Fold this sequence. Notes:
Distance between the termini: 56 Å
Structural class: mainly alpha
CATH architecture: Up-down Bundle
Number of helices: 16
Radius of gyration: 20 Å
CATH superfamily: Amino acid/polyamine transporter I
CATH topology: Amino acid/polyamine transporter I
CATH class: Mainly Alpha
Number of domains: 1
Amino acid sequence: MKKSFLQSLGPGLLFAGAAIGVSHLVQSTRAGAEFGFGLIWALLLVHLFKYPFFQFGPRYAAATGETLLDGYRKLGKGVLIAYYVINFATMFTIQAAVTIVTAGLASQLFGFTDDLVVWSTLLMFISLIILLIGKYSLLDNLMKYIIMILTVSTIIAVSVALFSTKEAFDVTQIIPSGAVELTFLIAFLGWMPAPLDVSIWHSIWSIEKDKTTVVKTKPKDAVFDFNIGYIGTLFLGLCFVLLGALVMYKSGETFSNKGGVFASQLIKLYTKNLGDFSYIFIAIAAFTTMFSTTITTMDASPRAMNRTTKLLWGKEFKLGYWFWIVFLFIGTFLILKYFMDNMGLLVKIATILSFLTAPFYAILNYKLITGKHTPQEHQPGIYLRILSIIGILCLIGFSFWFLTSI
């Protein structure tokens, strides 16, 4: 049985759905608003240096039939324990960050209440129902349409912005200086296009995809699927930087740290270019993007924690996936309920932590894909290996630069 082109796509688009969220709608737009075109170098560089390590997730899964977590266990129990601790420390904040932005957009779009905790709870509950009823296959199919809607709406918005601007383009690249600018840069790089541990999620989704289609994905097809999603995240990241630069740079406007206010500003950013008639269309596109991230993160973190728990204790826990989903739901709710005023700080901590742990995941993924646990014929070629080594050195270098500058 041969897969059609559309059928072969799946985990790569789920990766895009998870990645195109806070990093794009929030961080990229802010980068454009505050630095103009000046951080495009950072956007391109981080996509280049993170590329191999994200790609190794689906490549390893297709080559071995295992998730990266199974591979980490083979590298040593200590490696898996380290992942378990890091993931546990960040998963609630990450879920809270993506959910609160989604809630802000929902409040703007549907408007029956301005209480973002109520909206967040409702959105997480709806996500639970979708995952309960549809499981992986519904998530897989839903993402194809969501990414399509977002891409079309974003291209239209950027095109109109480009044609309507009267300002001369200044493409001078900027190296941030000072603690505030540098902290923003590291936060921007930390979640652009996504935290590196999303490669683990991708490997899990790849295994789930094979279960639903009953056709084993070849490594070449897995890499192709990944490339489609990765190019999409780069393209849309660039679009959001352009939008922020074209509409808000030197305008005197600054983005609010509050979810509801930010959502309002974001939608106005689009409608200012496209006209008021486009409000509903744009609001729905932005909302579905963030809602897709809310669902994918709510699915992925529990899958990862459940798999890690099984590998560490050597036995399957009945309803373990659902235990972790409910646990994530409760933990996220508590953060939103009692730490709402500190969400900006929590998100900043989470993004910086994501960047500082990037070398850890990069080294593990490289060691796994080039070592004895991956069949020789499916290991990366010399150019990808060279890029990987350069990437690891750059990720360590940026982390050292940040830690010695703050």
